[in-house]
Model the fold of this input.
Amino acid sequence: MPVEAPSMMWLQVRLYLLVGLMFAILYGILVGIGYYLQITGLFFYLFIIGIAVGFVLIQFMIGPKIVEWSMRIKYTSEQEYPKLHQMVADLSQKAGLPNKPKIGISQLPIPNAFAFGRTKKGSRVCVTKGLLDLLSDDELKAVLGHEISHIAHRDVAVITMLSVIPMICYMIYVSFLWGGMGRRDRDSGGAIAIGILALVVYFITSLLVMYGSRIREYYADQGSADLGNQPHHLATALYKLTVSSARIPKQALKQTEGMKAFFINDPSRALYEVRELKDIDMDMSGTIDQNELMMLSTKKISLKTSDKLLEVLSTHPNVVKRIKHLASLMTT
Done:
């Protein structure tokens, strides 16, 4: 089946539909449990939502410190990396951020970049040392533009908000199936049924959160172009990151397994995706120039069923689809 680049309007519609669907699922679950427990008052719903909000607040409070520790981040001064600081300052100003994010260097053994933080004002942009060695200045700026766009679009808040719903489903699953909530000797089957249903909905909503994350990656790619970066520079960066990550030993990749959602691409899928990229770099130069990207915009690309399944289970779009999307930005 041919892979078509998603339009930005369609991406926006899909995101709104996803948010609506997720909260409709949450509403249905709460109403169903309230009916089963014969609770019709407002207190029950406020209690469940309050627990979820509490988890979100805790995640927002300690999240940045956990990321700093797990990503082995060292924050840098302008004297240490003047060019990197200038790029981030310029992009932040163009994106309308209230201040320049803190800039850090991660000691992880793979080339990549990521952004995080509670708010726009308290945001951080980090790169690994391997990324600085791998990319040209234009490619690095395109990657930084992607990360700055994540901050400008409040993507951390959006994904965190969506992640609360599978979290609630999992809590309901544990409470009803293992915790005995709502069980009565004559009606334990009802509690078990709710627990199993909550587990199923947990898996479904987790897949929907990953789908939302993939939409945000497309938005950030678009955002990098909107900040003045040429699409072929970001396409080349994604190409280089995929090829480089495919050469990294599996043992080293395992160190990043719980962190890959933050990255600009999914390094654990690089070994599979690099095979799909062989027809994009037509002159085998190691880069994707404007002509190659323009040719890709009219080319039909088909993904294997296994590659489609890998994408469904990932927080990032397939790299070929992303580059195809970047190709479409050259003609708009």
